[in-house]
Amino acid sequence: MIDLTDEVRRSLTDLADRARPVLLGDAAIRRVRERRKRRRVSAVAACIAVLVMLVPAWWARNGARPEPPTSTPAEVTPSPPSLPTHVLTAFAGSGGAWQVLNPETGQYFRAPQGTTAVAVSADLRTAVVLTGTGRLGIAPTTGDAEPDWVDLPQATEYSSVSISYDGERIAVPLWAQPVAGRAVFRRYAVVDIDSLRLSVVQIQQTRETEATSLSWQGSRLLISMFAARLFTGQPDPGPAQLLYAAMDPDTGTLSDFTAVPARTGPVYPWRHQLVRDNSVVVQADINGRHAFAISRLVGDSLVRGPIQLKVPLAVSARAVGWDVVTDTIIVEIGGPPGTNLVAVQVRTGEQRQLLVPIPAEATYLVLGNGDALGPGAAYLRFSV
Questions:
Q1: Distance CA 35, CA 221 (A)
Q2: Assign residue 299 a region: left if phi > 0, alpha if psi is -120 to 50, beta otherwise?
Q3: CATH topology of domain 86-380
Q4: How far is CA 49 from CA 38, 55, 56, 200, 224, in A?
Q5: Is 280 within 8 Å of 295 (Cβ atoms)?
Q6: Which range is least confidently modeled, 29-38, 181-190, 217-226?
Q7: DSSP at 243
Q8: 267: which DSSP letter?
Q9: 351-353, strands of its sheet edge to edge
Q10: Where are the domains of the chain?
């Protein structure tokens, strides 16, 4: 930077040589301003010159029509699907009193006296209870409201009720007289949760079969059926012992039959227990022990399993949960010293006990979607 003191001194010398009157401060300041102006002009000109040289090169590299890349971008490997989580949503406690989970607080509350908590919706916000006289109750899982009641045409067993995934409808089999000791039904009830409207539908059967269980599959029902002679000791009907069919819930019309062969005999699967997408979990009795399999209802049915459990039929066992990603069935095994959950991997046959905290007195466990828990209850979820 130029020092104004030096400029003043030079100006004084110049003025002394010329011997003419002038305003000394103004002359010095004027010369400084002129020099600064010339330097700014020079700097701007230099910048313009540099830009003139650089801009064409940059434009060539970054213009509106860039050249395609010479190398192929690296492929992105998709992340594996996350495992679903589960939670104990209801169970029978001491003295037969049923407990239902509040998904926001993580606390269990007692279901209305004399009822059985049979199902909880996928969002964990609605519970369905049954009385022994055939009354069906629909209540929020907050525990602070009385159920809305619907009178069924007849009593039904607790394990057969199914709620649609969207939480809008309930399907309930209406059981007929047992066939060779097996529970069967030929009609069912559909209840609309919002309006409480009940419809009774007759199954439009076209084969010599008996229906043994039903579950929602999207907007339609899936039922499992067996040849009636399978239960009565008549000749073996052949390899297609188990039939599945899609059913219109409003008309009972059947379609899309799928036969599931018995791979290990004698196998007498008596019901499917869980349904998801195009697969079902099947329970069978093999040589006096419980066994489970997964059936794919796509094209030729692929049966994974059956996997025979290490517990005899004298000890109760039933499928209560399922991981589609790993083909792992969660089985509730009852009896002393208490109720346990066992994970059965049907691809490998691996069986292991799940370390899930279960109340000592709990039986008839009802599992639900752990991903729907609120923050206050998230600690209760588990996966296999």
A1: 93
A2: left
A3: Neuraminidase (2.120.10)
A4: 17, 10, 12, 89, 85
A5: yes
A6: 29-38
A7: E
A8: B
A9: 317-323, 328-333, 340-345, 351-353
A10: 4-60, 86-380
User: With helix as H, strand as E and coil as C, how does 51-116 read?
Assistant: HHHHHHHHHHHHCCCCCCCCCCCCCCCCCCCCCCCEEEEEEECHHHCEEEECCCCCCEEECCCCEE
* Best CA proximity match to 11, nearest among 3, 334, 25: 25
| In 319-372, alpha helices (H) | none
Where helices occur in the chain by DSSP H, the ranges are 4-18, 24-62
- Non-local CB neighbours of 330 within 8 Å, separated by 6+ positions: 86, 319, 320, 321, 322, 323, 341, 342, 343, 344, 354, 367, 384
| The length of the chain, given as a count of residues | 384
**What residue has token string 């022994």?**
132
Query: What tens digit of pLDDT does each residue of 58-68 get?
Result: 444 444 444 44
pLDDT at 45: 54
Does residue 204 contact residue 253 with C-beta atoms inside 8 Å? yes
The answer, as to whether pTM is greater than 0.85, is: no
Give the side-chain half-sphere CA count within 13 A for 174: 19
The amino acid that residue 277 corresponds to is D
Contact at 8 Å (CB) between 292 and 281?
yes
Contact 112, 144 (CB under 8 A): no
Rounded to 5°, the CA angle 100-276-151 comes to 50
Host H or E run for residue 211: strand 209-217
Q: pLDDT digit string (tens) for 176-191?
A: 887 766 778 899 999 9
